[in-house]
Amino acid sequence: METYLNFLLLVVSICTRSVASFELDPTWPDTAVKEMKVYGTGIVLNSEGNLIVIHRSGIMQPGAPVNQTIQEDVVLVVDSVTGKILQTWGKNLFHWPHGIAFKYDPITKVWNDSAILTIGERFISGSDTTHFCTPSDIALVPGSGDFYVADGYCNSRIVTFDKNGNYLFEFSAGSADTPNPIPFNITHSVALAPSSNSTEYLVFVADRDNSRVQVFNPTGSFLYELNSQQFGAAGMPMMFAVTHAPHAGDKFGRIYVTYGLNQNANFAEVDIINGENSKVGKSYAIVPDGEIGDWYEAAHDIAVAKDGNTVFVAVSRADRLILRKYKRNMGGGSGRRMGGSVLILLLTFVLVKWN
C-alpha cells in the first residue's frame, strides 16, 4: 500500500513539471536586415533592449581591399521586437571591427561618430601596455568604468584598464592541474558575472582554439575551466563567445556560450553554482542559413535579454548578415496541468477503492 502510493505521487510530480527550451523566431529580423551583404561580428543589447550590431561591411568578400578604413556605417541598432533598423553610425572609424560592448551615458545619450578614448595605434601591433595585436572583445566593470580587453589573436592575453584608459594589469591562461598551463590560443571573448563574494565578480574567457572557457577572479587568478566535453561537444569546437545575463531563481544568473561551425554550431546555458564551480546546461543547435557551399558560418557572438528569456546570436558569414533570435518556451501549458489533475484524482479514487 505505501510503496504503491509513493510511486503514484512520483508520477504526478514528473508529469506536472515544466521543461524550458529555446525556439527560433523565424520572422525576425526584418527582410532588409537579412538582405544586407555584410559580415556581422559583434552584438550587444542597449539600455532599451534593442540590439546593437557591428559588422565589417563587405571587406570579407573575395577581392575586397584590406587594411583600409571602412567608409560606410558599420554599426546598426536593430529593434529587438520588429527586427527593423532604427539607426546606423560608425563610418570612417574602423577597418576590422570585431567585438562591441555597451554602457549607457545619460549625459551623451546619442552616438556622435567620434571616439572619446582610444588605446593603441592603428596598424601598429605590440604586446606592451599601450599596444594590442588584433584585440577581439571588451567587458566593462559595473560601477567603476574599468574594463577588460581580450587581446586577442596574436597576444592571447587579457589586459585591464581603468575608466581613463590607464593600464592596470594583465593575465594569461591558468590551470588547476599543472604549473605550466596551456597558453591561450585566441582569447576571443570576455564577460563578467557576479561572484559568491558580493564585492567581486568572475571573469569568463572564451579561449577559442583551445575549445574551453576559463574562469578567473577579478585580479586574474585562475579558478576553473569548462571544456568541450562538458558542453557535450564532439572533438574540439571553437569557443567563440561568452556573455552573462540574470535569470529568475539563479542567484548569480547564467553564462551563455556559443561554439562550433556550420552544422555543429550551438549555444549553451551555464548555471553559475558559486565562485568555484559552474554547471553546463542544455545546448541548442544553430541551424545553418541555407546551403553552406564555399562559405562557413560561425556562431560568432551572443547577447541575452535582461530577463534571460531571449537570446540573440550573430552568425558570421562573408556573403550576408545573419542574426538569430531565440525565445524561451517554458512549456507546462494547460494540457500538462490537466494531466496532473487527472492523475491526482485517479490516485484519490484508488485509495478510496483500496480502503
Automatic annotation (TrEMBL):
NHL repeats lie at residues 126-164. Gene3D superfamilies: TolB, C-terminal domain. GO terms for cellular component: extracellular region. It comes from Folsomia candida (Springtail). Residues 1-21 form the signal peptide. The keyword Manganese does not apply. PANTHER family: PEPTIDYL-GLYCINE ALPHA-AMIDATING MONOOXYGENASE (PTHR10680). GO terms for molecular function: monooxygenase activity. The keyword DNA-binding does not apply. This is Peptidyl-glycine alpha-amidating monooxygenase A. Keywords: Glycoprotein, Monooxygenase, Oxidoreductase, Repeat, Signal. It comes from the Eukaryota.
